Amino acid sequence: MPEMILYNGVIFTGEGLAQDKPHTVEAMAIGHGKVLAVGANDAIQRMAGPQTELRNLDSAHTGVVVFPGFNDAHTHLGSAGSTKLNVDLTGVQSLKEMLDKIATYAQSAPAGRWLTGGNWDQTLWAQKMLPTRVDLDRVTGDHPAFLNRIDGHIALANSAALKAAGITGKTKPPQGGAIELDATGEPTGILRESAKNLVSRVIPPPSKEERRRGDELAIEDAVSHGVTSVQDFSRWEDFLIFEELEKEGRLRLKISEWLPFKSPLPELVKMRAHHDAHDPMLHTGMLKGFMDGSLGSRTAAMKAPYADDPGNTGLPQYTQAQLNKMAVERSKAGFQLGFHAIGDKATAMALEAFAQPGVSRTARNRIEHAQVVDPEDIARFKKLGVIASMQPNHLLTDMNWAEARLGPERAAYSYAWKAFLDAGVPLAFGTDYPVEPITPFRGLYAAVTRMNETGTMTYYPQNVITRGEALYAYTQGAAYAELAEKHKGRLTPGYDADFIVVDRDLYTVAAPSLLGTQVLETYVAGRRVYGASTR
User: Fold this and answer.
1) What DSSP state is assigned to residue 414?
2) Whether 387 contacts 365, CB under 8 Å
3) Mean pLDDT throughout 69-97?
4) Which residues on neighbouring strands pair with residue 266, listed in sequence order?
5) Is the dihedral of CA 225, 229, 232, 236 positive or negative?
6) Per-residue pLDDT tens over the stretch 507-534
7) Which of the 8 DSSP states describes residue 82?
8) For residue 535, what pLDDT is reported?
9) What is the pTM of this model?
10) How many CB atoms lie within 10 A of CB 264?
11) Domains of the chain
């Protein structure tokens, strides 16, 4: 017998989305975490038993629509939780506002406590200049401070943090990193890529209770925005928290947890064996490796110098030989590989590694971000069976300065969602949370408009995609990327009952209206995890 029947509704099953011919039904029966049946009201209601909960969608909320839950193909829950519990500088509009927020936090923090968190973005400021340790020193008192830029690829340390890490003007940065120096040869406090590890490794870790609270806040953020599954890259300690929540029956989000590509292979095999690989709520997934940094910090690896920074081509994190060797070893051990690659050189390096004999062509290896890709390399994605895992919402932030970084020729083939689809390359959409907010509706808006949120600026509109294609990439495309397309991403019999109730039709509503979408309820495996009864 069904545990719940929803009727008198507009329920998108997910069928036909990719072809822009979406299928809808009036009613859906769910039980044991699965969709049991979909169809017309009368047929589905006849399945009801004495214990079946009946939900009349028409009388519950005017204009509500049911969609498959969103599967965010790229998140960092642990980082999001840490930011929420520490110094959150998301969206600060000036250096002064940044320093004021830090000063307020520092005044209430216990003496000597490290100030961490961040998410600052200097491209939002009028001057657009990177802050320095001197700026931080003015407001941090006796606290060491280490605050990440929003992309996570550079960070700002104050003098106390640099001293704790033993960093001076003579410190040699590790491979793939850089320590910025001022005119006197002293560190400015800006650490790029792997150089950040010199400080992060001396920061006392959060307590288990703090980590759990942060993770719970991040999960709440996800389900409240209609996300039912995430493909996540957090620390192993966060995975153990997720595991603890699951054992307590309190895990409200399906999580496929990535493991660090750079870790020794025996350690990766041990982590993979730690938890049931077939657990639908929680399991480990692909290996995540970093080829380069970001455009915002000018550390993305480019084939030619940045248009606004001649001589700088970014910071590759591996030599090609290193990368090839590690990719072959890990692929032969049965791992799916996913490489963060934002610059065109980084993408080319990742594709070269995937092309090596011994690297599986059927493992659904992925390139994460793929923001700037040489047009000649797009065909290699298809040839090598590589998925383009992209985050359209990045464009809403980056379009203000991306063309200046890249120049018009490269900008024309950046964030090229349609070009990938035209080449037959599977797309999987996500947010890169907390680099961007976890709401999928900003990503949908960006994908179908390539306009800023005020509608005053358009970025190379030839790469817009259709509403159906965008919804598909955020549900079934993301499920395909995590090898779960046979049970996730659709609302048809036998599929997981992961669905959301929203206040508008995501397929037909005007594009600007997508940004105001309200999630009324979220269900994971047939269980209500967000809504009136869970607040």
Assistant:
1) B
2) yes
3) 94
4) none
5) positive
6) 999 999 999 999 999 999 999 999 954 4
7) H
8) 35
9) 0.92
10) 9
11) 115-200 (3.10.310.70), 208-482+490-527 (3.20.20.140)
Preceding amide of 434 cis, omega within 30: yes
Block residue for tokens 């610059």: 343
Rounded to whole angstroms, the Cα distance separating 159 from 167 reads 9
Q: Which two tokens stand for residue 344?
A: 């065109």
Is 433's pLDDT higher than 50?
yes
Among residues 341, 412, 351, the alpha carbon closest in space to that of 379 is found at 351
Assigned token pair, 227:
């996300």
Residues 6 or more apart whose Cβ sits within 8 Å of residue 307: 404, 405, 406, 407, 410
Q: What is the pLDDT of residues 351-383, one digit of tens each?
A: 999 999 999 999 999 999 999 999 999 999 999
CA 229 to chain CA centroid, nearest Å: 11
- Tokens 């001293």 belong to residue: 163
What confidence tier does 129 reach under pLDDT thresholds 50, 70, 90? very high
pLDDT tens readout for residues 259-310: 999 999 999 999 999 999 999 999 999 999 999 999 999 999 999 999 999 9
SS (H, E, C) 95-115: HHHHHHHHHHHHHHCCCCCCE
User: Token digits for 338?
Assistant: 């996913």
List of residues 6+ apart from 389 with CB closer than 8 A: 73, 74, 338, 366, 367, 368, 369, 370, 427, 428, 429, 430, 481
∠ Cα 404 408 414 (to 5°): 90
Residue type, 421: L
Nearest C-alpha neighbor of 317 from the set 86, 116, 153: 153
